[in-house]
Design brief:
alpha/beta; Rossmann fold; four-stranded antiparallel beta sheet; globular
Length: 234
Amino acid sequence: MKIELQDLNHRYDVEVLRELTFALEGYKSIAIIGVSGSGKSTLLRILSGLERPTSGSVRVNDHDVSNPAYRKSVGFVFQSHNLFPHLTLLENITLVLEKTRGHTKKEARDQACRFLTMLHLGDQVHKLPRNVSGGQAQRGAIARALSVGPEVIFLDEPTSALDPVLTYEVLNSIKELRELGMEFVLVSHVMTFVRDFADYVVFMNAGEIGEHGPPSILDNPQTEGLKDFMAKVP
C-alpha cells in the first residue's frame, strides 16, 4: 500500500487534523490508534474518500482520493454494521452490486454468497440483521465491503460495540482476510489485535501524527504521548 499526505488539514467547528505531511509505502495492514478526539477516525474517512479535507492533498495507491472514481475502489466498514435493517444479509450485498456495479441478479447473488460463506455466514444469508448476532452482522458488513472488489478495506473500530466473544469472531475473520492478501487500514482500540494484525502503526495525538513505525513501537514508545496512551489501554 502507498499513502501520501501533503499539508493535510481538516476542521469541523474546531481543527481536527493539522498540517499532516506523511508518506508510507510497502505495508499491507496499517493500524491507526489514539485516544478519542485525536483525529484517527477523521483521518480514516479522508483516506477512504468519505470526507474531503479542508486543505491539502491525499493519495492512496497513487489515486487522488478526491476523485469520485476512487470511492469505487475501496470498501468501508463502520463502527456499527450499517446494514439496511429491512434487507437480509444476502440482499444487503446484492442491492449494492446491482445498483452500483451493474451486476445481474445471478452475478450479484453468486458474489454475495461467496463472500458471506468466506466470512462463515453461509447459513445466515436469508436472515435480517436484527436476527443475527452483532458479530455476525458486522461480518456481514465486511462481506459487503469485500464484494465490490476493493483495493483497500477501511475499518473504523469494527468491534467497538461488541462484547469480547463477538469481538474475537470479527477480529479473527479480519485476520483470515489478511492472509488472503487483502490490504487494510484499521482504526482500533484493541492493542492485542493491533500488535498481531498490523505491520505498521500510526499513533494520532491531538490532530497530529505523534509517532509511527512497526508494532514494536507499542512496547517501546519514544514520545510522551504514546507512552501515556499505552499506559492507559489494555
